[in-house]
């Protein structure tokens, strides 16, 4: 069962990215990233836990869960009364370890006020991550720790290589405690490319830089051009009865792969071949030679919605002031967009833009709103503006630029279909 590590939403059909975050939280984090760019987030408590505000009692304690035979610590927590000895419904991996090993509870310190317990919990996580090789199953760990918790790729997972498909990988926890091994993507076969579905995953970090050389959109466009050559029909739904394969842009957990295959068996009665985009790209090159990407015509756009020109924007050359004046409007607009009030959301996005708010989150929100309205000319136009203005805030990350170019290409496809 998938579980979002940020909002704790869970369910068999919940889709999470490689970091364990659901789509809604991904969109909300784009807003948070804007705040980080401005460095306006106030310095809060030094601990990672959240206080209940009940700091009048001093009956809190901090505890460890550890394996008896090896002494390995796999979970740190704080609580009151019988908390350390109860089942933790959201600590899925910790509970799985308890079910497979003889474990024990160690109380580190008692008779603490809540803030003291939170700070000690934080400090104990840092100590374990900095001074031992133990793998914590706590989903949130201090940023100041020298290494991550146990959800990173297991050490045996092959390193990323240029134009080489990565793998479905086991986490350190899965490999160490449950002997789970990484799994290669399936070998590409032409007969299963007839009705592919592209898995929607956010591309981050080393896989983007190393596997795709920072140019993911090139490989995606060439694969789609190759699929068009063989008259393949791209399927929108992962579990459509006609789907013949899933094409992944990135690696994923073996655990997620197993859940998805189980769902496929239950919903459409078959296992689905899983291909990495790079393997499909190589298959196309080897079988059909170099793939020419059809040149996109600089089509004339007729946007439905109008807004002031760039030269009329306030604070256009003062990013900080534009952020200060416009962020509040953007934040309200994005919330309304997610709630379905698109008309009011658009007015507030325009106000944020007019005041000089200029961050990737603004253009992402605009694009998602116009896509929802099926206003593809507006979506293309606003994303082109975003690409043009990226220099205003010192350039944007490669994955955002690739995403915008991919969105433009997709909007052009939908635009053409809508006119047929």
Give the termini distance in whole angstroms. 41 Å
Strand content: 5-15%
Question: Count of helical segments?
Answer: 13
- Helix/strand class: mainly alpha
Radius of gyration: 24 Å
CATH superfamily of the largest domain: BRCT domain
Could you give the count of β-strands?
10
Fraction of residues in helices? 40-55%
CATH architecture level-2 label of the largest domain: 3-Layer(aba) Sandwich
User: What is the fold-level CATH name, i.e. the topology of the largest domain?
Assistant: Rossmann fold
Mean pLDDT: 86
Summarize the main sheet.
3 strands, antiparallel
- State the shape: globular
Q: Please give the domain count.
A: 4
State the low-pLDDT regions, or none.
31-43
Strand order of the largest sheet: 4-3-5
Q: Give the ordered list of helices and strands.
A: EEHEEHEHEHEHHEEHEHHHHHH
What's the CATH class label of the largest domain? Alpha Beta
